[in-house]
Design a protein that fits this description.
Rossmann fold, 2 domains, five-stranded parallel sheet, 15 helices, 13 strands, about 45% helix
Length: about 425
């Protein structure tokens, strides 16, 4: 354990050297998440950052540490990233507990300790030590954890922490962050470029397309194999890959396990309802895709059956499965979905009789209805996009988001907004 502690010392800047690392390794500051987490500092709730691999969770943790070390001794922050091979020996909660005890014995931190456990799901029984630390009133601490599997985190946290945690979902860059990071102006041209790349932060450091393709491909393989195949003992990895491709090629289309089974069988892929349903769930839990339920606006009830699926990031579509094609409106729809999810909204697909509303957005008392349309090219398109919203007889905000060159303002109380100005 001494060797592991020595490696840990390097990443924590313990000892006589200045604690604050230079700004460069900490990356782009994602203020939206930092501001959310800051509201929960100085209380015993465990802070949980959940998100797909490579969306920047580790950077956010280190940025929180940097901010904290302006106020507390570096010996009072403890950071462990289980993705680093140096910490392979930390396999169970007992190992982690021993490491924590060794740290406290060697560095003897005084006062509150701030623990940061990155990719915590790699530690067997991790929930036990998180529960123990947060419940130990004799040694005040705050615990921050990240993870890449929504089901495992949510289930174990709910079981062992019983509401003593707060959760934040970390998404890839949305357009505003993309522009701030790349120094591009917020224009239609930039937005189209954003739709052609996606928002994975590391992509913008890679200039060569072949390298970008390899990066996205390797990331996909890691998630599929490590976060799904191994954890859920998936028997047919090829089918899992085919299903992910199907979702990527059918962004925003109504689908059900039955329709997907029919499609796959037509492509001579033998499968069944239960397997497809399970694999879709695994892809959702690994946060590669998002499953969106339909909601009957007039009947005020969730609908069973077909749902819509969106990618967590468009890079999977753009770099792996097909070129930037005629489905531009679906790329836009996917990007708008992720934007509003990042803003903290619950999202549903709405129905009004036989008409469809792309998104119903809900957050506390705030509610919006959103249609996404590439271009309002003529009266027929305008009628198609505005009529569903006009059919909703309440006073919540109604919006049409598009990529027109200029906004058409308001029509019957419905706002027309340009995507890059959100």
């Amino acid at each position: 354990m001494d060797e592991v502690l020595q490696s840990l010392t390097k990443y924590n800047n313990w000892g006589s050297k200045p604690a604050l690392p230079t700004p460069e390794p900490l990356g782009y500051r994602r203020s939206l998440y930092l501001d959310k987490v800051e509201k929960y500092l100085n209380n015993p709730l465990a802070k949980v950052l959940m998100g797909q691999r490579r969306t920047g969770k580790s950077y956010i943790l280190r940025q929180i540490i940097q901010d904290l070390q302006k106020k507390v001794s570096p010996q009072n922050t403890f950071y462990l990233n289980k993705e680093f091979l140096e910490f392979d020996a930390i396999k169970s909660y007992q190992d982690l507990n021993t490491l924590v005890a060794s740290y406290k014995k060697r560095y003897q931190p005084q006062g509150k300790i701030y623990y940061f456990f990155d990719e915590i799901q790699e530690v067997v029984g991790w929930e036990k030590i998180v529960n123990s630390l947060t419940q130990n009133f004799t040694e005040p601490c705050e615990v921050f954890i990240t993870g890449s599997n929504s089901k495992m985190l949510s289930t174990e946290l709910s079981t062992y922490l019983s509401g003593r945690f707060v959760q934040f979902e970390v998404f890839p860059f949305v357009f505003n962050e993309y522009c701030n990071f790349t120094k591009l102006p917020k224009t239609k041209e930039s937005y189209l470029k954003f739709l052609q790349t996606g928002g994975l932060p590391e992509l913008f450091k890679l200039q060569d397309r072949e390298v970008q393709v390899n990066y996205v491909s390797s990331l996909t393989d890691t998630i599929l194999l490590n976060d799904i195949v191994k954890k859920f003992s998936v028997r047919d990895p090829a089918l899992l890959g085919s299903l992910f491709k199907f979702v990527s090629d059918n962004i925003g289309n109504l689908s059900s396990p039955n329709t997907i089974v029919g499609f796959l069988k037509s492509a001579k892929v033998n499968t069944n309802y239960e397997t497809v349903s399970n694999y879709l769930t695994y892809l959702s839990q690994a946060l590669l895709i998002h499953e969106v339920d339909r909601f009957d606006i007039k009947g005020k009830a969730l609908l069973t059956g077909a749902k819509k699926y969106y990618l967590n990031d468009l890079s999977f579509k753009n770099y792996l499965f097909s070129s930037f094609d005629v489905g531009l409106s679906k790329h836009l729809e996917n990007a708008i979905y992720i934007y509003y999810r990042q803003q903290g909204y619950k999202v549903y697909v709405g129905t009004v009789g036989n008409l469809e509303v792309d998104f119903i957005l809900e957050k506390s008392s705030d509610k919006k209805y959103v249609q996404v349309c590439y271009n309002l090219t003529d009266d027929k398109v305008i009628s198609r996009e505005f009529t569903p919203l006009e059919s909703i007889k309440d006073n919540y905000e109604k919006i049409v988001v598009g990529l027109d060159d200029t906004s058409y303002g308001n029509k019957n109380g419905i706002k027309h907004l340009l995507a890059w100005e959100l």
